[in-house]
Amino acid sequence: MNSYISRTYLQTEFVRLFSWWVRELASLIPAKVYSMLVTGSNCLVIDVLDTEIRIGRFQGDVFKDLAHIESSSQKPEQNVADVSRMVQQERANQIIFRLPIAKAMVRILPELPKDMENNLEEALYFELEKLTPFRPEELWFDYRICGRNLKNGSLDVQIAMVPKESVLELLTLSQSWGIKPDQVDIVGEDASRQEKFNFLKHAQVPLSSRYMSISLIQNMVALGLLVGVVLFPMFHQYQTLQKVTGQVAQIKIKAENSLIIRNNITNIVSESLYISEYKRNLPSFIEVLEELTKIIPDDAWLVRLAVSGPSVKVSGYAQSASRLIELIESSSIFKDVTPDSSFVRDPKLERERFKFSFQLEHKGTARR
Questions:
Q1: Are 129 and 156 spatial neighbours (Cβ–Cβ below 8 Å)?
Q2: Which DSSP category does 279 fall into?
Q3: Cβ count near 170 (within 10 Å)
Q4: 62 phi/psi in degrees, rounded to 5
Q5: CA distance linking residue 239 with residue 124, whole number of Å
Q6: Do residues 327 and 295 touch, judged by C-beta distance below 8 A?
Q7: What is the distance between the alpha carbons of residues 184 and 177, in angstroms, rounded to a whole number?
Q8: In terms of DSSP H, where are the helices of the chain?
Q9: Which of 92, 230, 279, 359 is the most buried if burial means most Cβ atoms within 10 Å?
Q10: Exposed, middle or buried: residue 39 (CB in 10 Å: 0-12, 13-18, 19+)?
Q11: Is the pLDDT of residue 209 over 60?
């Protein structure tokens, strides 16, 4: 029993490693050739719908509708016989089962950071609970990159999620038919269109191809045993690194957001302290009024006094407005006296009407 478990484990790990290697080299392989490697040259598709079982075939990129079998719960043995006979007749290289789209949840996640691409599967796992009412461990999912924004370096990702229970029910049904699927997918809006999803990879089921003979698999396992001492520890280290890198990417995003918020708060506090300190160092309204009372002669009087921050405006009447400017400028807390209008002599009061603007000196920069 231990020997059987070890052999099965090694087969599973080796096929997973080979699949990862093919995906990494996908950009170097022509699209048509890669499509043949991934989906097989003769692919049988079985759509298990609510009312019927629909069977079709992909020959390369061409889809052919083969049969529609009425799904009957009263005569399940008839379904077994019909489906099994069709599968034996076709002798496909690969068998794909597809669930109805109603049993899946498909979402588009726009503008994900490009840095997440190397760890996209781990990052998406943490998003499952936000996208569905299920817990992540209750789902199997797959994804594909459906768009790239070169301007801001972001990705658009389409993710498909299926309750684990639905896939297990389908696998139980396929077992009763004596069929082992290579892939579990969903039916798109166009039933003849083959989607690029596979929920079996989370079931840890080896994706066998019927064109690979048993002897070839045994040879591959033997080769894996020879290099296992070096290869598998490295592979497990790679998996651990991928998972940790994904977690670090998530933490980095949260840390950057926290840093931005902290900097904004620091700037607001600094500005508030600066304004408060600036106002505190200006003379108060009482000090301004007291200083003007001291320096304005008895033959002059004020009609209006307005203080706004460091600016002061006064208006009134005086025997000599020019002399009054000199008196104000001589003060230790006033500066930059500027007439706001020309001086006009009032014949009734026999005094000049004036309007001045001047600034307040900060307490720490007094001239005297």
A1: no
A2: H
A3: 21
A4: -95, 130
A5: 16
A6: yes
A7: 15
A8: 2-24, 31-39, 76-90, 120-125, 128-131, 164-176, 214-280, 285-295, 321-329
A9: 92
A10: buried
A11: no
Name the one residue in this structure whose structure tokens are 């977690």: 247
Q: Hey, what are 235's tokens?
A: 């592979």
Determine the straight-line distance between the first and last CA of the chain, rounded to whole angstroms. Answer: 100
What Å distances lie between residue 91 and 53, 87, 170, 348, CA to CA?
18, 6, 21, 120
- Please give the Cα distance from 127 to 130 (Å, whole number): 5
> Strand 183-186 vs strand 94-99: parallel, antiparallel, or unpaired?
parallel
Residue 95 pLDDT class (50, 70, 90 cuts): confident
Which helix (H) or strand (E) segment is 64 a member of? strand 62-70
Instruction: Name which of 117, 137, 119 is nearest 244 in CA terms.
Output: 119
Query: Tens digits of per-residue pLDDT, 280-338?
Result: 677 888 888 888 888 888 888 888 888 887 888 988 898 888 888 888 888 888 888 88
Q: Which residues of 274-312 are buried (b: 16+ CB within 10 A; e: fewer)?
A: eeeeeeeebbeeeebeebbeeebeeebeeeeeebeebeb
Q: Are 338 and 357 in contact (CB under 8 A)?
A: yes
Evaluate whether 343 touches 353 at the Cβ level (below 8 Å).
Answer: yes
Give 152's DSSP letter: T
- Which of 350, 269, 290 has its CA nearest to residue 317? 350
Q: Is 196 helix (H, G, I), strand (E, B) or coil?
A: coil
What's the rounded Cα separation, in Å, for the pair 2 and 8?
A: 10
Residues 6 or more apart whose CB falls under 8 angstroms from that of 289 comprise 305
Residue 350 DSSP label: T
Rounded mean pLDDT of the chain? 77
User: pTM of the full predicted structure?
Assistant: 0.44
For the packed helices 214-280 and 2-24, what is the interaxial angle rounded to 10 degrees?
Answer: 60
3-state SS, one letter per residue, for 102-138: HHCEEEEEEEEEHHHHHHHHHHHHCCHHHHCCCCHHH
CB 162 within 8 A of CB 139: yes
3-state secondary structure of 352: strand
161 bridge partner residues? 105, 141
